[in-house]
Design goal:
The protein is α/β, with parallel strands linked by helices. The chain folds into 2 domains: 5-182, Rossmann fold (3-Layer(aba) Sandwich); 190-275, N-(1-d-carboxylethyl)-l-norvaline Dehydrogenase, domain 2 (Orthogonal Bundle). Helices cover 47% and strands 14% of the residues. The chain is built from 11 helices and 8 strands. An 8-stranded mixed sheet has the order 3-2-1-4-5-6-7-8, with helices on both faces. Helix 7 (189-206) packs across helix 9 (228-235), helix 7 (189-206) packs across helix 10 and helix 10 (237-251) crosses helix 11 (260-267). Bound molecules: nicotinamide-adenine-dinucleotide. Nicotinamide-adenine-dinucleotide (NAD) binds at residues 9-15, 32-34, 38, 89-92, 96, 100, 117-119, 140-141, 143, 235-236, 239, 274.
Length: 285
């Protein structure tokens, strides 16, 4: 199973990061989203991220141009027909992912691997929307993709070892460390992390401390590089809420009950860094 060409579906913060790292590692990449504007926004984000690397002398201007040359825009999923691996990184909603996987199953060659960057949705359930569950796998990159080393690899019930091996090799080729786990809600990472982020939101809701205070305590006291509330903003509060709801449904355990403050913020459209406002303000004056 040789991977040469990759399509990334969803050009948001995760999809654009995955496309950037894949192209930087020499793969031919198609970047897809639901409109030309959103693909262009993703490409602009990649260009800005590469500019920062050039400035820090981590890559040359020529390397930057090479990365951008290897990424093609795709406003439909038709180009998936040319791909060996598709990494889906659209919004964290089962109905959206189900629709994408159904379409990918029809568009791609039978040998193509279909991976999802889902944070919490069951890979086995996503795979059931295709006629090739053995070629469906979770490839959970961390945010921000260019910086974070881990790729959590989630094997669905039917995923074959050959598919796991091919995907692990691709993650390694992208300079990442793949670590495997079973397909349970939230996998290893978010089952632990989301409880902490939610608890920090409950503390804010109850007025235990200010947002800055909660984050300072966790940074200085636990040696975390960023506080849980700043991290929730970075992940996206809509994504945090979606993951908590999936955990709550998946385990039927009230310990995952999302804090009402989180729901209010999402209802207000305060989604965190990506929308300019979340728990903190990111508007530039
Ligand atoms: N944000 C994180 O820290 C993080 C970390 C790991 C995994 N994830 C997962 O990655 C996925 C994407 O998250 P994100 O933070 O990049 O979200 P985002 O909101 O930044 O981007 C999502 C993108 O998906 C696009 N999209 C929606 N429907 C689509 C469709 N039918 N076809 C193609 N594109 C579509 C949207 O237009 C948007 O550009 C989610 O499943 C999320 O759970 C997120």
């Amino acid at each position: 199973m040789e991977i040469k060409t990759i399509m990334v579906v969803g050009a948001g913060q995760m999809g654009s990061g995955i496309a950037q790292m894949a192209a930087k590692s020499g793969y031919s990449v198609y970047l897809n989203d639901i409109s030309r504007e959103l693909v262009d926004k993703g490409l602009a984000g990649i260009s800005a991220s590469l500019d920062r690397m050039v400035k820090k002398e981590k890559i040359s201007k020529d390397e930057k141009a090479g990365v951008l040359d290897r990424i093609q825009s795709a406003v439909t999923l038709d180009s998936a027909a040319q791909c060996d691996l598709i990494v889906e990184a659209a919004v964290e909603k089962m109905e959206v992912k189900a629709e994408i996987f159904k379409k990918l199953d029809q568009t791609t060659p039978a040998k193509a691997i279909l991976a999802s960057n889902t944070s919490s949705l069951p890979i086995t359930a996503i795979a059931a929307h295709t006629g090739r569950p053995e070629k469906v796998i979770g490839m959970h990159f961390m945010n921000p993709v260019p910086v974070m080393n881990l790729v959590e690899i989630i094997n669905g019930l039917a995923t074959t070892p050959e598919v796991t091996e091919a995907v692990c090799k691709t993650a390694e080729a992208m300079g990442k460390t793949p670590v495997e786990c079973r397909d349970v809600p939230g996998f290893v990472s978010n089952r632990v992390l989301m409880v902490m982020l939610n608890e920090a939101l409950w503390e804010l809701y109850e007025g235990v401390a200010t947002a800055e205070g909660i984050d300072q305590i966790m940074k200085l006291g636990m040696n975390h590089p960023m506080g849980p509330l700043a991290l929730a903003d970075l992940i996206g509060l809509d994504t945090v809420l979606a993951i908590l709801q999936i955990l709550q449904e998946g385990y039927g355990d009230p310990k995952y009950r999302p804090c009402p403050l989180l729901k209010s913020y999402v209802n207000a459209g305060w989604l965190g860094k990506k929308s300019g406002k979340g728990i903190y303000n990111y508007y530039r004056s």
